[in-house]
């Protein structure tokens, strides 16, 4: 509905638009005179109540008091580090370790505040308490505790025991290799079928296969035992007369802490060839470069004596030894079987050769 002055085509009273534009028509607050208007930056006046709400100044809008700048005394100590909280159920050893670390942190903070040029505190805890481990100068070289020397009389029992253990420990690997042979699997299948047909029972057939596997294990172990028995009865029975009475023969042992950790021998094999024999390293000292050092000792001896090549033999199950020899420059030149039983069990012997150049022999 239109206001009275707009009805029937009436015009607005003079000055009404001006009052609306300038803000003079603002309604006064009940019970008091109207608040004066303040001029705005663009020339318009703004009511005082709006100023108070908008923060443009006025009697009701006071600026906050400035913050006081509290200065700390120059000699005040820094805030101590917050101690670490121990979780419940922490073992006593770990609790003592944590307390020691807190003491190290406090000691490090105190040392940081000392003046430059001050003498170091001898009782201070070092910041890096971890010890430095010795590192070999040449990667893959044996540690300084090993010593490679020639065979002596007191090494007789240790050398024989080390060689026997090194050969017999390959029996499980040899047994698994034999089971992978096709002829052996066919033989086990034939045993099962024959026992099943004769007894008419699956259980008896499986028992016959188990008995055949036990017999096969005995045969495989007998291969290694026969090789050890032959070595202990020939050259390892009298090492000085076999390897130490000729300038072209040598027998070395690797010693650590007074005990024999490895062994290797060398003797002529043919015209211009030196054979590497009886290489063995104890299980406790493997993976530290000892076998590589013994192999290099034989190669250096062959060069010094004027041999043109070094040859050796190893079995099919000695995979680690094959990788070692191939890494030292040996290459496979032949394959053979040690006996008729080895032929039936597919147990092969690999022949390796390393050429050293034109030798004098």
TrEMBL record:
Concerning Pfam families, the annotation shows:
Acetyltransf_1
In residue numbers, the region (Disordered) covers 1-128
Give the source's domain of life in one word. Eukaryota
Q: In which residue ranges is the amino acid composition biased (Pro residues)?
A: 78-90, 119-128
Keyword tRNA-binding: yes or no?
no
- Domain N-acetyltransferase as annotated: residue spans: 211-357
User: Transmembrane residues, as ranges?
Assistant: 186-219
Q: Which GO terms describe its molecular function?
A: N-acetyltransferase activity
CDD domains, per database record: NAT_SF
Any keyword Transmembrane? yes
PANTHER family, alphabetically? Answer: 8B (PUTATIVE,_PSEUDO-RELATED (PTHR13947:SF58), GNAT FAMILY N-ACETYLTRANSFERASE (PTHR13947)
User: What protein am I looking at?
Assistant: N-acetyltransferase domain-containing protein
**Which species is listed as the source?**
Chloebia gouldiae (Gouldian finch)
